[in-house]
Structures are given as structure tokens and as C-alpha cells.
Design brief:
Blueprint: H1 4-20, H2 25-44, H3 53-62, H4 69-73, H5 85-97, H6 101-121, H7 127-144, H8 147-164, H9 168-179, H10 201-216, H11 221-230, H12 235-244, H13 257-271, H14 273-279, H15 283-299, H16 304-312, H17 316-327, H18 332-354, H19 371-381
Helix pairs in contact: 1-7, 1-18, 2-6, 2-7, 5-6, 6-8, 7-8, 7-17, 7-18, 8-9, 10-15, 15-16, 15-17
């Protein structure tokens, strides 16, 4: 029931992607702009959806619009956390313009949509299909929960072109800006020095197989390293490690839909490796990013939250590689069937992601539940 609005959104974008296969460039551009506008309206004016609004809404209320020190030092006088200066400055400026949390939320979404459009328009000709991939592979969480991280990730996505062009100054400048929105962007700095190298096809296969063996054999590399380093000397750290590697906090290792998705993606990349590289030089970068995505999701599989957050840093590889895989088919009918299959899969995935009471969709343009109402529902039901 809760998933219906999100599934309908995927159907609309998937239909545009399927229809756009037979249209000229001007029609595709118009469809692209319309699709981006719909993406913004849907997520930019959302109500209190998912979880992280419980942090951002009180944080926004705490900002004092007449105190510029908030923009310099961040907020946190009444909270137990700290926001990065770039995000805090954006929050401060939005509050100075219009003191409304939903206005700030809409501005963040507009920045995301603009960055996403700029990233996609220079790389793919079927923007609606790119949006389908974006929403289902990381984008849903980015547009609802990861308000800081999403801006950082999409800034990095736009900086990738400078890795290929070997232009360090604009690349590091953009990553520095991303770092002011989320500290995890620090991991992007060293990518400039090796992400542009072409990975040998057979080395890629060896890494891919090794990571699958580690995952399926339940080899807890990070957990073992932590155990060796701390031993039994720090009961608090040991307890946290045990908590994250067992029970509800740990993602079940083994064959699942998510694992089969990664297995299929990695296998198709190997099968069409040479073709993907020939399509665009940047694909050697996106393949390297996909390998880093696998490293994050397989090696850190014991730590579900950490695995998801680290994996999302490299999820941009999905959006381009899956799009190019559709062009790997020489017969146009096969391409359309592939798009239809991916759209169907994404619909099913959205059901799993959003069929929760915390994902219940409402829109401030048509009336949304108040903060107190959503907080009551969230606290009473959790993720039921």
C-alpha cells in the first residue's frame, strides 16, 4: 500500500524511457526536462518521509537566522551531533530567505536534481531511464534520507569528467566543496590518482570472483581485523562489533535479491567489457567505481549501515553502466525488452524499499502530516 506512489513514479519514468526509444532529439530533450521536473515535484515537496527528518527538522529550527556564527561553526547547541559547514551555510541562507523547513528541503532537492541532470545529460540520451536507475539504485535514499551525503555524491559525479580529462584543480575544488557537505567525500580525493587506469578484463574477473567467494563463504575480514587489533581489551568496542555483525543489525549474508542483482551486473559487465570500454572512455572509471562498490558491499557486509553508506559513495557507476548495457544489444527490440525488464525489476525493488509506514508518501502541496503526527507514527510503529 505504502509503495504505490513510488511504483507509479517508476512506471511513468519507465514508460517515458520505453517511448523515447523511437523519438528524435528534440522530443527526448523535452521528455528529459519534464521527467526532471516531475522528479523535483515528487521529492522536493515531500512530507516527513523515512527517518532522517527527525534530525534535520530540529536542526533547522535551531538555526538562528540573525546569527552568522551558525554558518561558520555549525549547529549543535542543543543537539549531540555536528553538521558540515557547507550544509550548515546552505541551511542558514535558506532560513534567511524563507523560514520554513520545507522550503529548505525543496532547495536541497533542487540542487540534487540540477546536479543529476547535468551529470546524465552529458552521458546518456535517455534521461527518464537514467532517472529509473537513479531512484532504484541509491537515489530513493539520497532524496529522502541522505540530504547532506546526496549533494556530496552528486558533486563527485559531476567531477568525474575531470578525472578522465586529467584536470586536478577543478576536480579537487569540487571534491573540497563536496567535503563541506559530508565528510565521507574525503574518500574521493585519492580516486583522482588511480580511477582512470583501465583495469584488465581478466583481473576484473578475478577480483569479482574473489569478492563473491568472500561474501558467500561468510569470511568476516573487517570483523577479524577488529578482533585482532582490540582483542578482549575493550569490551565496549567488542560489544559494538558483535552487535553490528549479528542479529537484526547485520545483513544476512548469502543469496538474496540484492546479491543476485550485483552478481548479474558484474557478470554482464564482464561479458560486455570490451564493448563498454569502446562506447566511452569514461567507462573504465565507472567500472573501477563499480569494483569499489562491490568492495564496500561485500567486504563490509557484516556492517549493514556502513556497507550501504559506503556503497552509495560509488553507486553512480550503476546509473551509467546499466544504461550502456542497454546499448550493448545490437537489435533495438532486445534493447526495449531489456529496458522493460529493468523497469519491472525496479518496480519490484521499490516495493521492498518503500512498503513501510515510515515511507508513507505525502506532499506539502496537497497537505502533509505535521512533524508531531509523523513523529508519533514513527515512534509507535517503527519500521513495521
Amino acid at each position: 500500500m505504502y509503495a504505490v506512489p513510488y511504483v507509479l513514479l517508476i512506471i511513468i519514468f519507465g514508460g517515458l524511457a520505453f517511448y523515447g526509444q523511437t523519438q528524435d532529439k528534440s522530443a527526448k530533450k523535452l521528455m528529459a526536462l519534464g521527467a526532471m521536473a516531475l522528479l523535483f515535484l515528487f521529492f522536493g515537496f515531500r512530507g516527513f518521509i523515512c527517518d532522517d527528518w527527525q534530525i534535520y527538522y530540529p536542526g533547522f529550527k535551531e538555526v538562528e537566522a540573525d546569527d552568522i556564527t551558525f554558518a561558520v561553526y555549525g549547529i549543535g547547541k542543543g543537539l549531540d551531533w555536528h553538521m558540515e559547514p557547507g550544509f550548515t551555510l546552505l541551511m542558514y541562507l535558506c532560513k534567511c530567505i524563507f523560514n520554513d523547513y520545507f522550503f529548505f528541503q525543496a532547495v536541497c532537492s533542487l540542487i540534487n536534481v540540477a546536479l543529476l541532470y547535468n551529470f546524465l545529460r552529458n552521458r546518456i540520451d535517455d534521461i527518464p531511464f537514467g532517472i529509473v536507475l537513479f531512484i532504484c539504485f541509491g537515489g530513493y535514499g539520497m532524496m529522502t534520507n541522505m540530504m547532506r551525503n546526496s549533494i556530496a555524491i552528486l558533486i563527485f559525479a559531476n567531477a568525474i569528467t575531470y578525472i578522465e580529462q586529467r584536470k586536478p584543480l577543478p576536480y579537487f575544488a569540487l571534491i573540497l566543496v563536496a567535503f563541506t557537505f559530508h565528510t565521507t567525500a574525503l574518500i574521493y580525493f585519492p580516486l583522482y590518482f588511480f580511477a582512470h587506469f583501465k583495469l584488465n578484463k581478466w583481473i576484473y574477473l578475478g577480483i569479482f570472483i574473489a569478492l563473491n567467494v568472500i561474501f558467500l563463504a561468510h569470511i568476516s575480514i573487517i570483523g577479524n581485523i577488529i578482533s585482532m587489533v582490540i582483542g578482549d581489551g575493550d569490551s565496549r568496542v567488542s560489544g559494538m562489533t558483535d552487535a553490528y555483525t549479528s542479529g537484526d543489525l547485520a545483513e544476512a549474508k548469502g543469496i538474496s535479491i540484492g546479491y543476485l542483482e550485483r552478481l548479474l551486473t558484474g557478470s554482464l559487465i564482464f561479458c560486455y567489457y570490451d564493448k563498454l570500454i569502446a562506447m566511452r572512455k569514461e567507462n573504465k572509471i565507472f567500472i573501477n567505481l563499480f569494483v569499489m562498490y562491490l568492495l564496500a558491499t561485500f567486504i563490509l557486509a557484516d556492517f549493514q549501515v556502513l556497507s550501504e553508506r559506503m556503497g552509495n559513495l560509488f553507486i553512480v557507476s550503476y546509473w551509467i553502466l546499466w544504461t550502456d548495457l542497454t546499448h550493448a544489444f545490437s537489435i533495438s527490440n532486445n534493447r526495449r525488452l531489456f529496458i522493460a525488464f529493468i523497469t519491472l525489476y525496479c518496480m519490484m525493488k521499490m516495493v521492498g524499499l518503500t512498503n513501510l509506514v515510515t515511507s508513507e508518501y505525502d506532499n506539502v502541496l496537497f497537505g502533509a502530516k505535521s512533524y508531531e503526527q509523523r513523529l508519533y507514527i514513527h515512534n509507535r510503529t517503527g519500521d513495521k
